[in-house]
């Protein structure tokens, strides 16, 4: 056993814990597919949100951990339930009022409101694949429409007919009395209107593999369950999909966790050992509400990538998957800086520590070096103080602070400068508000100004931090009040970077000018 694999068997990182659990599944019986099958599901009722991405990102991390522990081949399937009927019109699409007439049609039969693809389902699938390809995930995409209509699901659908009573018993036990009267695991698709029908079954023929029901207008109709004539209700569909594909692992949100016993039972009834599963906490918007595809609340993948790198988003997804995450724009700078802190730490860590470092899982063990000689949060403060309008302006300060840094050699820093300018324009600039210092704060600022005017130690962040600290030590208790004052009166913000480092980046002369303007009441 290699040193790295031995470390992996002991790692407390959650992807390794999941991978060991999956591997234990194969101790007595090898995977029936010849490989371990990992699945993620997507309901394309709306544009893919950041939670959908997170599911694939986290599953990919588990796969990479599994590959470190085992020689068993792996496969990742992203399954889109695009045969589902559109139950409500999304509010975050153009010309949404024009979609009302297409309610209950499969999503792949609803016109694309963006006018780019053959259907709304195809549009949303394409968006998802674009996001996944941007991050370089190794996956196979499966459309439920194609899966049902091509006959790939037929064997399991016929088995569901045979086991209809058993599956119905599982489902009825989970439903309220009034819902039981009309429930069926099968949803016929009307051969004329194309709509998905929620109607009770009059009979289910095991001999013929057909279902008989009354349509909404009272017409009796019989359809085969094969060939895309019906789809399964979403809970039976979950378990049936596991059985049809032979899924070994699936990750899904906490809102599914109460249904897990149902999915498992249906999978077993249909002949497949239920997969290992992992339930993660939900993503919340700035108001603490669950992120929804149909309402478009929270930060989208495109929005995150406007202000930060793909790796920073993957880092955010790695952290504490069992804890609910607030997804608003203000989490981005912290995620960027923490990600680079982990990159720098990785360089000096041993194998055990590296396998517990998020960047190992983000980069599949091939971890780059950080070129961020200036933290992202500090770039934002610099852009704010100097009113930056272009990259060259910020690079002028960076070059003086770190002479060896260049846009080519520090490409991640160069990209961060561009991101910082956008973030500053969109979020910092509109909310920047200065306040006048109190008498005590002005006294401390005057001492800091005096110290800077006689400064002869160059742009030394630690020495400048000591100077800042000494000006507040005897005046403020707790000291955080002094630093909070510096941010509010000099930067127009409620929080900021390590201030000595910021003064070093800004430059001594510029720092003197900034404090003088503050004390003269000229900052606004």
Task: Based on the model shown, name its key terms.
524 residues, alpha/beta, five-stranded parallel sheet, 12 strands, 47% helix, 10% strand
What is shown here, in short?
With 524 residues, the protein is an alpha/beta fold. It is built from 23 helices and twelve strands.
- In whole angstroms, the N-to-C terminal distance is 64 Å
Q: So, CATH architecture of the largest domain? A: 3-Layer(aba) Sandwich
> The biggest beta sheet, please?
5 strands, parallel
Low-confidence stretches: none
Structure description:
The chain has 524 residues and is of the alpha/beta class. It folds into 3 domains: 3-283, 3-Layer(aba) Sandwich (Rossmann fold); 376-431; 439-519, Arc Repressor Mutant, subunit A (Orthogonal Bundle), CATH 1.10.10. The chain is built from 23 helices and 12 strands. It has helices at residues 3-8, 14-25, 50-69, 120-134, 144-149, 154-162, 164-172, 177-180, 234-245, 260-269, 301-307, 310-318, 332-346, 351-355, 358-362, 376-386, 391-401, 411-428, 439-453, 461-473, 480-491, 499-506, 508-519, and strands spanning 36-42, 74-80, 140-143, 186-188, 201-205, 210-214, 220-224, 230-232, 249-253, 276-280, 283-284, 325-326. The strands form 4 sheets. A 5-stranded parallel beta sheet has the order 3-2-1-9-10. Helix 2 (14-25) packs across helix 3. The radius of gyration is 29 Å and the shape is elongated.
């Amino acid at each position: 056993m290699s040193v790295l694999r031995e470390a992996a068997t002991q790692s407390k990182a959650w992807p390794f814990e999941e991978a060991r659990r999956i591997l234990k599944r194969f101790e007595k019986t090898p995977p029936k597919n010849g490989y371990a099958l990992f699945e993620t599901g997507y309901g394309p009722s709306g544009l893919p949100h950041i939670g959908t991405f997170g599911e694939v990102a986290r599953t990919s991390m588990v796969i990479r951990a599994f590959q470190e522990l085992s020689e068993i081949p792996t496969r990742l399937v992203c399954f889109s339930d695009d045969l589902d009927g559109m139950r409500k019109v999304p509010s975050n699409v153009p010309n949404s009022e024009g979609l009302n007439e297409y309610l209950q049609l499969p999503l792949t039969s609803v016109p694309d409101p963006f006018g780019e693809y053959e259907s709304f389902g195809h549009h949303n699938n394409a968006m998802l694949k674009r996001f996944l390809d941007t991050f370089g995930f190794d996956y196979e995409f499966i459309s439920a429409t194609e899966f049902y209509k091509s006959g790939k699901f037929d064997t399991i659908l016929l088995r569901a007919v045979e086991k209809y009573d058993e599956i119905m018993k599982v489902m009825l036990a989970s439903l309220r009395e009034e819902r039981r009267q009309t429930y069926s695991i099968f949803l016929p698709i009307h051969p004329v209107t194309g709509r998905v029908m929620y109607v009770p079954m009059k009979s289910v023929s095991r001999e013929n593999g057909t279902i008989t029901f009354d349509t909404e207008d009272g017409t009796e109709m019989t359809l085969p369950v094969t060939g895309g004539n019906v789809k399964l209700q979403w809970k039976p569909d979950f378990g049936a999909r596991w059985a049809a594909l032979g899924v070994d692992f699936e990750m899904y949100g906490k809102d599914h966790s109460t249904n897990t016993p149902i999915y498992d039972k249906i999978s077993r009834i249909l002949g497949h050992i239920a997969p290992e599963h992992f339930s993660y906490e939900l993503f919340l918007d700035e108001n603490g509400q669950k992120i929804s595809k149909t309402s478009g609340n929270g930060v989208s993948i495109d929005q995150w990538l406007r202000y930060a790198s793909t790796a920073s988003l993957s880092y955010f997804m790695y952290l504490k998957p069992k804890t609910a995450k607030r997804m608003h724009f203000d989490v981005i700078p912290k995620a960027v800086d923490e990600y680079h802190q982990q990159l720098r730490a990785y360089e000096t860590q041993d194998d055990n520590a590296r396998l517990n470092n998020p960047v190992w899982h983000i980069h599949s063990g091939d971890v780059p070096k950080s070129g961020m000689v200036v933290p992202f949060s500090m770039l934002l403060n610099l852009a704010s103080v100097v009113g930056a309008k272009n990259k060259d302006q910020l690079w002028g300060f960076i070059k003086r602070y770190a002479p060896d840094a260049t846009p080519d050699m520090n490409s991640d820093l160069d990209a961060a400068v561009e991101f910082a300018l956008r973030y500053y324009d969109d979020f910092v600039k509109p909310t920047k508000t200065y306040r006048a210092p109190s008498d005590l704060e002005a006294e401390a600022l005057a001492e800091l100004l005096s110290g800077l005017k006689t400064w002869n130690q160059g742009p030394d962040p630690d020495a400048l931090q000591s100077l800042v600290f000494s000006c507040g030590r005897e005046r403020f208790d707790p000291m955080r009040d002094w630093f909070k004052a510096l941010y509010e009166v000099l930067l127009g913000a409620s929080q900021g970077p390590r201030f000595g480092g910021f003064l070093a980046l800004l430059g001594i002369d510029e720092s003197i000018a900034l404090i003088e303007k503050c004390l003269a009441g000229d900052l606004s």
